[in-house]
Design a protein that fits this description.
single chain, alpha/beta, five-stranded mixed sheet, 8% strand, CHAT domain-containing protein, TPR-like_helical_dom_sf
C-alpha cells in the first residue's frame, strides 16, 4: 500500500539518476512508487515505510510534528541538551516514515542548535549535509515529478544556509557570507512572486520576520567588514521593526529570539566603539529579560570583566563559575569554553598564571572538539602569554607561531596583526635580537595604524587606535629608543601626528539656506546631495571618513626611511596604498630667526620629536614617562577653569582663581615650573636659550598630543638645571635661578597636522564679526548666555569696533560697533552668506563646545541658529549648534586667511582622538592662521571692575589685522606676563590671556585638496 505523499501522476520517463541508486527517499518509498507504475522495483530499493499502514503512518506523522514543536521551544530557551534529544527522536520518525523533508528539517534545526552551543564542527557538518541531501532530493523530485515536495524542503535549505552565513562571517569570509545572503533574498523574492498557490505561508515570510533575520546577518557582515556606523543604524531600525512585530501572536517567540540577537549585536558595536556604558546597558537588559535562562548566564560572563575592573575580583570569578555551570547543564559547550576563556583572562590579569593556563586548556579542549578555529587562535595567543609570563619562551613561541599560521591561513588580517603582536611581544620580552623583533614589530605597527582608517565610524577607529594601534606603537617606540634609531622614531611620531582630515564628501551636501530638504530615504538623483535624513544626528552617521596619512617627505634632501617599512606592511597585511600627493612635514623657515618644530605623540608614554627648520636632518627624540605626563595634567587640571565633572562654571572659575592656581603668583609659578620640568627636555631648553641669545627671538611651533592639548606652552618656566633625584614639591625651586618663561625667549604657535587638506582662502575684503551671538532659548545669564556681558558705547570693545568702522566697512553691515554685538541673526545662514563674499578675517567670540562625544566633527560653535535649521547636531531646546561636520558638509567650504575662534577650549581639537574639530575644519577650509584658546575662558564677570575678555578680543583682532599676528599676539602676552609679575591680582591673571594661541599654517607651503 502506498502511503504518505500522493503518487506522481506520470511515470518517470528517464533512467534512474546515479545519485538515487542508493534507494533515495523523498517523501515516500521509491520502491512503492515504482510498483505503482509497474516498473522494476529492484533499482529503487525498499525502506521501512513500505510496511506501514495509513493509520500508523498518520500517527507517526502527528508525533513528528509534536516533537519538532517541542524541540523548537527548547532551542529558543537554549536548552540544548533537551532539544537535541527531541531532534534525535524526530530523525527516528523521519527514517520510519521515509520522509526526507522531516529529516532535513531536523538536521537543519540541529545545525542551528549546534551553532548556538558553539559546536561549530557539527554545526557545519549538519548544514552541509542538508545542502547535499537537498541536491539529491531535488534530483528525485525531478525524476518522479513530485514538485510539491520541493516546497517542503526549501525551508530547511534556508535554515542550513543561515548557519553557513554565520560561520563564514566569524571566519572573516565576508564575500561568501554576502553571497549566501543575496541568494536567500533572491529565492525569497521568487517565492513571493509565485504566491500562496505555489508555496505555504511559512515560506512566504508574510510578516517579514525572515527578512529581519537576514538583516541581522547583514549587520554581522558589516561588523566583520568594519562598518560599525552602518551596523549601528541598521540595528536600531531592526529593533524598531521587531518591537512592532512583537505584538503579533503568530511570530512572538521568534521575534523575541531575534530581539535578543539584535541587542547582543548592538552591544558588540558599542563595545567596539568604546561606548562601554551603553554596551553594558544592553547586556544588563538582556540579562533581566532572560533571567533564569542560559542567555542570562552568557551575558553574566561578559559583564564579569566590568566587575573585576571595578575591584570585585572574587565576585567576577564567582559569576563566571556559576554561569559556566548553568551553560554546561544546558549543553552549551561553546559558551562553556567562552566562560573558561574569560576566567583564564581574569586570572592571568592578577598574575595567577598556572590557574589561568588550566582554564585556557579547558576552553581549548572544548573548542578543538567543536572545530572553533577562530576560538582556538585566541586560546593559542592566551597560552602564549601564559608561557611568556613564566619565562617558558620555547612554549610561548610554539603557541604564538600556531596562532600566526592560523590567522594567515584564514585571511583574517586583524587577527594576523594581533597574533604577530603577541609574537613580537614575546620576542621583545625575551630579549631576542632587537633587529629581528623590529622586522616583525615595525610593519605590524604601521599596518595597525593604517588599518584604523578602514573603519567607517569614529567610535570604531578610536577603539581600534586605543586597544590595538597604541600598544604596538608604544612597544616599537621603546624598541627604537633601545636601538638608538632617532630618525625612525621621529618619522613614526610625525606620521602619527599627520592624521587629522575627514574626507568622503565630493561637494556640499548640507543646505544652509534655511529650507529643510525633504526627508527622502535615498540620495537625490538630481544633484547628488544627501538628504538630511541620511546625515542623522551623530558623527557616526555622517558621510565623513578619516583619511590615512599621505606620503610624507622628511626634508628637501631626503624622503622618509619609513617608506620601505610601509611597503612591507602593505605586502604582509594586504593593506591598500593609494597614490597620494607627497606632503612636506616641516614649515618654511622664517628669515633671520630659528624655527623649532615639536611634535608629541601618545603611545602609553608620550614621545617628543623636535628639530629646527635650519637643520631638518638633525633630530632629537625623547620619551616622556606616563607618570610625568600624568603629574603635569593633574596640576594643570587643578588650575584650569575648565569645569570638572559635577562642577558648575562658577565653581570652576573660583577654583582657578584660587591662590594655589592662577589667582596667586606663587601658585601659578609652581604650575609653570612643574609643567616645564615634566615636559621640556634639557636639550630643547638649551637650544632655545642659545637661539634667543643671537638677538632674534626663535619661533616654537608645537603639535601637541591629546594628553597635552591644554598646555599653555608660552607660560612654561625654563629650568636652569635638572635634579638628580625625584623632587618633592617644595624642592622644585632649586632647579630655577629666576622666572624665565618660554614667552620670554620665544614666540609660540601651534602646528597643523601635515595631513590636513588646505583650500586657498577667500579673496581679501572687509572683516567679519560674529560677536557674542544671542542663542535661542538662552538667557544672557544662562549656561549659553552672554560671554562679553553688557556692553555700551563707552566700553573698550565697542570703542575698538567703532574705530574699525571708521576705517572702512565691516560684515555684517553695521552703523556702529554696538550693532555688531549680541545680534539675533548671526546664524549659519548669515555665516554662509558672509563667507561667500571677499573678507580679510573672521572674528568669532562666543560659546564653543563638544556637543556629542569625543570626535572632532561634533565640536561646535553656538551661533544664533534655531532648531529648525538643518545640521548634524541634535538640538538643545530651540537651538541647533553649528558643528565642524556642518562646516565640512555645507557650502561654507572656504574661510578667510585669518580666523579667530574665541570660546571655551576652541583649540581643543588636539585633545580629541580624531582632531578634526572647528579649529582644523577652519584650516581645511582655507584659514592660514586661527587664533583660539586651549581652555574654557572665564567671562569678565569673574573680576568686577575689569574687562579682560574684551582686552583679549581687541588684542586678537588687532593682531589679525597686522602683518605678523603670531609675533604681535606673543608680544601682547609678554606684556600681560610683565603686568602679572608686577601686580599679581585676579584681573591680570594668566587664566584670561595664557590660553590664547595661534595655529599658524601660513608658511606650511601647502594648498591642496584631497
Amino acid at each position: 500500500m502506498l502511503v504518505g505523499m500522493p503518487p506522481p501522476r506520470n511515470p518517470p520517463d528517464r533512467p534512474l539518476p546515479p545519485e538515487l541508486s542508493a534507494a533515495s527517499s523523498h517523501g515516500y518509498n521509491c520502491r512503492c512508487v515504482a510498483r505503482h507504475f509497474g516498473l522494476d522495483p529492484a533499482p529503487y530499493g525498499e525502506l521501512p515505510a513500505c510496511s506501514l499502514s495509513e493509520r500508523q503512518y498518520r500517527k507517526l506523522l502527528v508525533e513528528a510534528d509534536k516533537v519538532q514543536d517541542q524541540a523548537k521551544r527548547l532551542a529558543v530557551t537554549r536548552n540544548v541538551a533537551g532539544a537535541q534529544r527531541k531532534y534525535a527522536r524526530m530523525r527516528e520518525i523521519a527514517h520510519q516514515l521515509d520522509r526526507t523533508d522531516l529529516e532535513l528539517a531536523a538536521v537543519s534545526d540541529l545545525a542551528t542548535l549546534c551553532y548556538s552551543a558553539g559546536d561549530l564542527r557539527n554545526a557545519r557538518q549538519c548544514a552541509e549535509a542538508v545542502l547535499h541531501v537537498f541536491k539529491v532530493s531535488t534530483a528525485a523530485i525531478v525524476h518522479f515529478g513530485q514538485y510539491a515536495e520541493a516546497r517542503m524542503i526549501e525551508g530547511s535549505r534556508e535554515v542550513a544556509e543561515r548557519v553557513l552565513i554565520s560561520l563564514a562571517t566569524e571566519e572573516g569570509d565576508v564575500a561568501k557570507a554576502s553571497e549566501l545572503i543575496a541568494g536567500q533574498r533572491r529565492r525569497a523574492a521568487f517565492r513571493k512572486e509565485a504566491g500562496p498557490e505555489q508555496y505555504p505561508p511559512e515560506l512566504l515570510d508574510v510578516h517579514g520576520v525572515d527578512e529581519l533575520e537576514l538583516r541581522i546577518f547583514d549587520v554581522r557582515v558589516q561588523i566583520a567588514a568594519g562598518d560599525f556606523a552602518g551596523a549601528r543604524t541598521a540595528i536600531e531600525e531592526i529593533l524598531a521593526a521587531l518591537d512592532v512585530l512583537a505584538e503579533v501572536d503568530e511570530v512572538r517567540e521568534r521575534v523575541m529570539h531575534q530581539q535578543a540577537m539584535a541587542r547582543a549585536e548592538r552591544a558588540r558595536v558599542r563595545q567596539a566603539g568604546g561606548e562601554d556604558a551603553d554596551a553594558r546597558a544592553d547586556l544588563l537588559r538582556l540579562s533581566a529579560q532572560h533571567e533564569g535562562r542560559p542567555l542570562a548566564a552568557k551575558v553574566a560572563i561578559e559583564l564579569a570583566s566590568d566587575r573585576a575592573l571595578a575591584g570585585d575580583f572574587p565576585g567576577a570569578v564567582a559569576a563566571i563559575v556559576s554561569a559556566r555551570d548553568e551553560l554546561a547543564a544546558a549543553g552549551l559547550t561553546g559558551d562553556v569554553a567562552e566562560a573558561s576563556h574569560a576566567l583564564g583572562g581574569l586570572l592571568l590579569m592578577v598574575g595567577e598564571v598556572g590557574q589561568a593556563r588550566d582554564q585556557f586548556e579547558h576552553a581549548k579542549a572544548i573548542r578543538s572538539a567543536n572545530g572553533d578555529v577562530p576560538g582556538l587562535r585566541l586560546l593559542d595567543t592566551a597560552l602564549a602569554r601564559c608561557a611568556a609570563a613564566e619565562g617558558d619562551w620555547a612554549t610561548a613561541e610554539d603557541y604564538a607561531t600556531r596562532a600566526r599560521e592560523s590567522a594567515r591561513t584564514s585571511g583574517d588580517w586583524p587577527a594576523l596583526l594581533h597574533t604577530d603582536f603577541v609574537a613580537a611581544s614575546i620576542g621583545f620580552a625575551r630579549g631576542e635580537d632587537p633587529r629581528a623583533v623590529l622586522d616583525l614589530l615595525l610593519p605590524l605597527t604601521l599596518a595597525a595604524a593604517e588599518y584604523r582608517f578602514e573603519f567607517v565610524s569614529p567610535e570604531a577607529r578610536t577603539a581600534w587606535a586605543r586597544d590595538i594601534a597604541a600598544p604596538t606603537m608604544g612597544m616599537v617606540l621603546a624598541l627604537l629608543a633601545q636601538l638608538g634609531e632617532r630618525r625612525l622614531t621621529a618619522e613614526l611620531i610625525e606620521r602619527t601626528c599627520a592624521v587629522g582630515a575627514y574626507t568622503g564628501v565630493e561637494g556640499p551636501s548640507l543646505d544652509l539656506t534655511g529650507t529643510l530638504p525633504s526627508l527622502e530615504l535615498a540620495p537625490s538623483t538630481e544633484d547628488d546631495r544627501l538628504p538630511l535624513a541620511a546625515l542623522g544626528s551623530v558623527t557616526a552617521a555622517l558621510p565623513l571618513r578619516l583619511a590615512p596619512p599621505p606620503v610624507l617627505r622628511w626634508s628637501p634632501s631626503s624622503g622618509t626611511e619609513l617608506d620601505r617599512w610601509l611597503g612591507l606592511a602593505a605586502e604582509r597585511y594586504r593593506l591598500p596604498r593609494p597614490a597620494t600627493e607627497i606632503i612636506e612635514t616641516w614649515p618654511a623657515a622664517r628669515p633671520g630667526r630659528e624655527t623649532f618644530v615639536l611634535r608629541f605623540a601618545d603611545a602609553g608614554h608620550t614621545f617628543l620629536s623636535w628639530r629646527t627648520t635650519g637643520d631638518l636632518d638633525t633630530v632629537h627624540t625623547h620619551p616622556i614617562e606616563f607618570a610625568l605626563v600624568g603629574t603635569a595634567r593633574e596640576f594643570l587640571d587643578a588650575a584650569s577653569p575648565t569645569p570638572h565633572e559635577g562642577e558648575s562654571v562658577a565653581e570652576a572659575v573660583r577654583r582657578s582663581l584660587g591662590e594655589d592656581a592662577f589667582g596667586g603668583f606663587a601658585g601659578e609659578q609652581r604650575l609653570a615650573r612643574v609643567l616645564a620640568l615634566n615636559l621640556l627636555p634639557a636639550d630643547l631648553v638649551t637650544a632655545l636659550r642659545r637661539a634667543a641669545a643671537g638677538g632674534n627671538r626663535p619661533l616654537l611651533r608645537i603639535q601637541p598630543s591629546p594628553s597635552l592639548a591644554g598646555v599653555p606652552w608660552g607660560l612654561l618656566a625654563l629650568p636652569d638645571r635638572r635634579a638628580d633625584h625625584v623632587l618633592e614639591l617644595d624642592e622644585i625651586g632649586t632647579c630655577f635661578d629666576g622666572d624665565e618663561r618660554v614667552l620670554d625667549v620665544a614666540d609660540v604657535s601651534l602646528l597643523a597636522p601635515a595631513a590636513i587638506p588646505r583650500r586657498p582662502p577667500v579673496a581679501d575684503g572687509p572683516p567679519v564679526y560674529l560677536l557674542d551671538p544671542r542663542i535661542p532659548g538662552q538667557s544672557a545669564f544662562g549656561e549659553l548666555g552672554s560671554v562679553l556681558g553688557k556692553q555700551d558705547t563707552t566700553s573698550p570693545l565697542i570703542r575698538h569696533l567703532d574705530a574699525r568702522l571708521a576705517d572702512g566697512p565691516v560684515l555684517p553691515a553695521a552703523a556702529r560697533g554696538l550693532d555688531l554685538v549680541r545680534r539675533t541673526d548671526t546664524d549659519r545662514r548669515l555665516l554662509a552668506e558672509l563667507l561667500a563674499r571677499p573678507c580679510s578675517r573672521l572674528v568669532f567670540v562666543g560659546h564653543v563646545s563638544r556637543v556629542r562625544d569625543e570626535h572632532g566633527a561634533q565640536t561646535a560653535l553656538h551661533l544664533s541658529c534655531s532648531a529648525d535649521l538643518p545640521g548634524t547636531a541634535a538640538p538643545i531646546g530651540p537651538h541647533r549648534p553649528f558643528t565642524a561636520a556642518d562646516l565640512a558638509l555645507s557650502e561654507v567650504d572656504t574661510m578667510p586667511a585669518r580666523v579667530a575662534l574665541i570660546g571655551c577650549a576652541s583649540a581643543g581639537d588636539f585633545g580629541l582622538a580624531e582632531p578634526f574639530g572647528v579649529l582644523l575644519a577652519a584650516v581645511a577650509a582655507g584659514a592660514g592662521l586661527v587664533a583660539a584658546t586651549v581652555w574654557a575662558l572665564p567671562t569678565s564677570a569673574a573680576v568686577p571692575g575689569s574687562d579682560p575678555m574684551s582686552e583679549l578680543v581687541i588684542a586678537v583682532d588687532t593682531a589679525l589685522a597686522g602683518e605678523d599676528p603670531v609675533t604681535e599676539l606673543c608680544a601682547w602676552q609678554r606684556s600681560r606676563l610683565a603686568r602679572w609679575r608686577e601686580k599679581p591680582e585676579p584681573a591680570s591673571s594668566p587664566v584670561f590671556w595664557a590660553p590664547l594661541t595661534c595655529l599658524d599654517a601660513t608658511d606650511d607651503g601647502k594648498t591642496w585638496v584631497r
